[in-house]
Amino acid sequence: LSESRGGCIIRVQSPDGMKKIPSTKRETAAAFLKKVAKEFGFNSNGFSIYLNRNKTGEILSQNKTLSLLKIKHGDMLFLFPSGSSGSSGEVMDTVQEDEIDQYLAKQDGKIYRNRDPQLCRHGALGKCVHCVPLEPFDEDYLNHLDPPVKHMSFHAYIRKLTGGADKGKFAALENISCKIKSGCEGHPPWPEGICTKCQPSAITLNRQKYRHVDNIMFENHTIADRFLDFWRKTGSQRMGYLYGRYTEHKDIPLGIRAEVAAIYEPPQNATQNSLELLEDPKAAAVEEIAAKLGLCKVGWIFTDLLSEDTRIGTVRYSRNKDSYYLSAEECITAGYFQNQQPNPCRLSREGHFGSKFVTVVATGGPDNQVHFEGYQVSNQCMALVRDECLLPCRDAPELGYAKESSPEQYVPDVFYKDKDKFGNDVTFLARPLPVEYLIIDITTTFPKDPQYTFSSTQRFPIENRDVLGETQDFHSLATYLSQCTSTVFLDIVSDFHLLLFLVTNEVMPLRDSIGLLLDAVKTSNEDLAQTWKKSEQWATIEQLCSTVGGQPSSSLEYGAMGGPSVPASSSAMWSCLHCTFMNQPGTEHCEMCSLPRS
C-alpha cells in the first residue's frame, strides 16, 4: 500500500524480532491490535504495545484511528508480551533471592595474585599480566586448582555473562521449555497443526559449564552414621531429606556450599533393591519447623549399599565408570526434586533459574567402604523432566530415552554429541541417551572440626522407623529424658527429631506454642530455653512422661535434668505404637484407633 492512497506500514518490534504490519490511517487501534495479535500469534490480552521503548505511551484497544493517535507510515512501535520484563537483560527487582545469593552478588569475586619476583618487572604498586587480578570464571586458574575444578560457580558464570563493555545489557537466563507455546491462533491445535512460532526448539545436550552448588558438607559424622544405621540393621535401602543452609564455599571463587545439619526420613517402603516414597502427613510441619530454625531443604540422600564381607564390614563397589554413577531413574527423580525447589534469580524473566537442590548417594567406594557422592542434574535435564519428555530404560539403568511425539504430546527432538570410532564429533538422536550428559558432580565432605547445630549428645528415635521397633512416643521421650546426663536444658532439647515429635505428636502437639524453644535452639540461647521450660506446655509433657510408668511422678527416679526414668510394669499405662495415644492399664486394644496393643 502506498502512503498517498491512505495505506501505511507500521513496524512492530518484539523480543522475537520485528514485523511490518500493513494498515491504513483510518484503521482503529482495536482493529490494528487484532492484526498484530494474529501476526505474532498472541491472544488479544497476551501483549501490550507502546509508542516508546521505555514502556510509555501504551496503545489501548479503542475506536480512535491511528491518525488521531499520531501514528504514521514507517513508525516503530514496541511490543512486550504479558509478564515480560522488557529488554532481555533487564533485572527483576521484585525477586527475593536467597541470602547467600544476595551476599555473593555484592562481593568483588576477583582472584588476587601476589607480585611474581621472577616475572614481574615493575614496582610494588604496579600490575602486569603476571599479577593482575583474575576473573572468577578464569578457566586456566580453575583447571590448575588441586583438585581441578570442572565447573565454575553459578555466580562466576553470572559475572561472565554480565561482564564486558555492555555490562550484561543483553544477558538473560532463559529457562528451557519443551512445550508448545500457547495462544497461537493461526492454525488448529496440536496434533492437527503446529508452526515455527509455537514449536519448541530442538535441544542439543551439552555438559553444563557451571553448577549452582559447589560443595556439600555434613556438619558431623553422627548425622550420616545415624542415617546408615537403618541399612546396617535391616539390609534395606533408605532415603531422607537433607536440611541445612547455604553458605559461602571459599575454595572456589564465588562458590556456594550446602551445609547439612539434619536428615528427615519420610514414610517409605524399602527393600534391598528398591525404595518407594509414601504420602507424608508431616511434610508441612517439617518445613515449618526447619524454617523457624533457620534451615531449609537443601537436598536428598539415599543409600545403594550391598555388603561385600560382613566380617570386616566392607561393601560392594558398584557405581563406577564401567557401570554408572546415577541411573536414569535417579536422574529423573533428582530433576523432579530440583523443579520443586527452583533457585530465585533476578536475571531470569520467570524469576527463577535452575536449582540449588542436591543429590547425595551413600554407596561403596573403590576401597569397599561407604562413600558419599554428591550430584545435581543439569538445567536441560530439569526441563526434560518438568515437561515429561524423559524416560528411563528398563534393562539399562545408565541410559535414558527421549520420548517420541504422540497425538497427546509434542516432544522436540533431543540430540547429543559424541565421538565415533574415528574420533570425529557426531550428533546422535537421544533415543537412547547416556545420562552422563545430564549429571554434574559435587564434592561431598566432612569437616575436620565437627559442627553441631543440634547439640544433644543423646539420640531420640528417628521418625518412621517403626519397622526397627524404634517409635516416637511418650515412653521413648521419658526414656530419652531419663538418660540425659547434661544439666543444660538447651542441650537436652536440641535434637531435630525430638523437636519434630513435640510438634507433630497427636497427644500433646505443641505447634502453636513451641516458637520460643525453636528460637532458643536457633540462637543457642539457654535463657530462652529456660523460660520455655517453665511454661505449662512443658509441665504437661513432663506429667505425661511420668504417667507412662503407671506411677505418680513423685515416686519415679529422675535423670540429671529432672526427667523421669520409666520402670517396667505390667499394670502400667501403655502408648499405642500406631497413634501414640496413652491407654489405661489392662486394655489390649487402643482406645483411640482400636488397633491391638502388639
From TrEMBL:
Supply the alphabetized keyword list. Answer: Acetylation, Chaperone, Cytoplasm, Endoplasmic reticulum, Metal-binding, Nucleus, Zinc, Zinc-finger
Segments forming domain RanBP2-type: 570-598
Give the main localization category.
Answer: cytoplasm
Q: Which gene encodes it?
A: NPLOC4
What's this protein's function?
Answer: The ternary complex containing UFD1, VCP and NPLOC4 binds ubiquitinated proteins and is necessary for the export of misfolded proteins from the ER to the cytoplasm, where they are degraded by the proteasome. The NPLOC4-UFD1-VCP complex regulates spindle disassembly at the end of mitosis and is necessary for the formation of a closed nuclear envelope. Acts as a negative regulator of type I interferon production via the complex formed with VCP and UFD1, which binds to RIGI and recruits RNF125 to promote ubiquitination and degradation of RIGI.
Q: Which organism is it from?
A: Myripristis murdjan
- Every copy of the MPN domain together lies at 216-353
Q: Pfam families under this entry?
A: NPL4, UN_NPL4, zf-NPL4
MF (Gene Ontology): ubiquitin binding; ubiquitin protein ligase binding; zinc ion binding
Write out the annotated subcellular location.
Cytoplasm, Cytosol; Endoplasmic reticulum; Nucleus
Describe the family membership recorded for this protein in Swiss-Prot or TrEMBL.
Belongs to the NPL4 family.
Note the PROSITE patterns from the entry: MPN, ZF_RANBP2_1, ZF_RANBP2_2
Which Gene3D superfamilies does this chain map to? Cytidine Deaminase, domain 2, Phosphatidylinositol 3-kinase Catalytic Subunit, Chain A, domain 1, Zn-finger domain of Sec23/24
Q: Which CDD domains match?
A: MPN_NPL4
Task: Kindly provide the name given to this protein in its UniProt entry.
Answer: Nuclear protein localization protein 4 homolog
Cellular component annotations (GO), alphabetically ordered: cytosol; nucleus; VCP-NPL4-UFD1 AAA ATPase complex
Q: How does it assemble?
A: Heterodimer with UFD1. The heterodimer binds ubiquitinated proteins. The heterodimer binds to VCP and inhibits Golgi membrane fusion. Interacts with ZFAND2B; probably through VCP.
- Highest taxon of source: Eukaryota
Q: In which pathway does it act?
A: Protein degradation; proteasomal ubiquitin-dependent pathway
Annotated GO biological processes are: retrograde protein transport, ER to cytosol; ubiquitin-dependent protein catabolic process
Recorded hits in InterPro entries, A to Z, give: MPN, Npl4, NPL4_C, Npl4_Ub-like_dom, NPL4_Zn-bd_put, Ubiquitin-like_domsf, Znf_RanBP2, Znf_RanBP2_sf
